[in-house]
Amino acid sequence: MKRYLMTPGPTPIPEKITLSMAMPIIHHRTDEFKGIFKETVDLAKEVMQTKNDVIIFASSGSGAMEAAVSNVLNKGDKAITVNAGKFGERWGKIVKAFGAEAIELTYEYGDYAKVEDIEKSIKNSKNVKAVYIQASETSTGTFHPIDEIGLMLKKKYPEVVFVVDGITAYGAIDVKTDDWNIDIGITGSQKALMLPPGLALLSVSEKAKNVISKNKNNYFYFDILGEIGAKAGKFTPAVSLVIGLNASLKMILDEGLDNVFKRHEILAKATREAVIALGLELLSKRPANSLTAIKSPLNISSTNIILKMKEYGVDISNGQGYLNGKIFRIAHLGYFYKPDILMCISVLEMVLKKMGYSANFGEGIKRAMGILLDE
């Protein structure tokens, strides 16, 4: 059976990128690889819209999240963490793991961070060293107003380090790292960058580097300043993945960032409006263009929907935490185009009808076709 991967990570990998990683391995300390590595870092800066240093760890995105905590915070330091989903919850856990104080702003899953809440929390807590937040909360399909938050911090609390997990945002959503005052921006290989899991990227501002240079915490592998000083990574890099990343970044830039963002916007709109036309409800109050989280119909478990979709060869994702069985998530970030959305919505409609949900049958695909035709 042909398989269709519609999950928010890993995402489909273009043939061109797969082939680039299938080339014979080269040694990571040669001038050849050092040249590829440097070019890849420069390409990453363009995609992440930053002039800051960008480093590459051989790890999942969580490794980069850990580095952004261990390198910035000392034991006893205060940091604000935004918990509006499973990955926001992870920020708080990492901060506490390194002996710092997590001042957690908690929102209902599907809700988004409010600028005024963060401003008030910094004012009341005093001596807050950093703010940790997602750009796109993958577990809920929510896009936080990181532009407003970053600019507020720049104006009122310029000493606070602003850390953004953009793992399902960079390469899919127009995240302006420098313009939005993001001191550490994070992304991962298996999302919009269209690669297998295994790489984490961080952009690091001059302010963040200055803070890190005074850090007294313990770390070894996730050494941000040490990586900046190395020509092709302080430790053995994931050579084939870096070569694949080089190809994927070129693919994104060849399409053009504006075109990439527009494509994701159109696919997101078609997906959202299609499921609404079916009588379903979105989870997020501020949906991201990288994935769509949908509430399961009454008396139908999203787990069963996912299993039925798999019978057609289509993989979508369940909810996480208490949302498991209650929502399902359809991705449209990275290597996705109009036919992928039409296929997924069609299969979803058939599955729902077979499971006894026949409301508005045919209206979802009709709405998706209308949007994609007009765009």
Q: Give a quick account of the main beta sheet: strands, pairing sense, barrel closure.
A: 7 strands, mixed
Structural class, judged by helices and strands? alpha/beta
| Strand count | 15
Low-pLDDT runs: none
The whole-angstrom Rg is 21 Å
Look up the CATH topology of the largest domain.
Aspartate Aminotransferase, domain 2
Q: Report the total helices.
A: 13
Order of helices and strands: EHHEHEHEHEEEHEEEHHHHEEHEEEHH
CATH architecture of the largest domain: 3-Layer(aba) Sandwich
Number of domains: 2
As laid out across the biggest beta sheet, the strand order is: 2-10-9-8-5-3-4
What does this structure look like?
This protein is of the alpha/beta class and 375 residues long. It has 2 domains: 4-8 and 256-374, Aspartate Aminotransferase, domain 1, CATH 3.90.1150; 16-255, Type I PLP-dependent aspartate aminotransferase-like (Major domain) (Aspartate Aminotransferase, domain 2, 3-Layer(aba) Sandwich), CATH 3.40.640. Helices cover 42% and strands 16% of the residues. The chain contains 13 helices and 15 strands. The strands form 4 sheets. The protein has a 7-stranded mixed beta sheet with strand order 2-10-9-8-5-3-4, with helices on both faces. Strands 11-12-15-14 form a 4-stranded antiparallel beta sheet. The protein is globular. The relative contact order is 0.16. The mean pLDDT is 97.
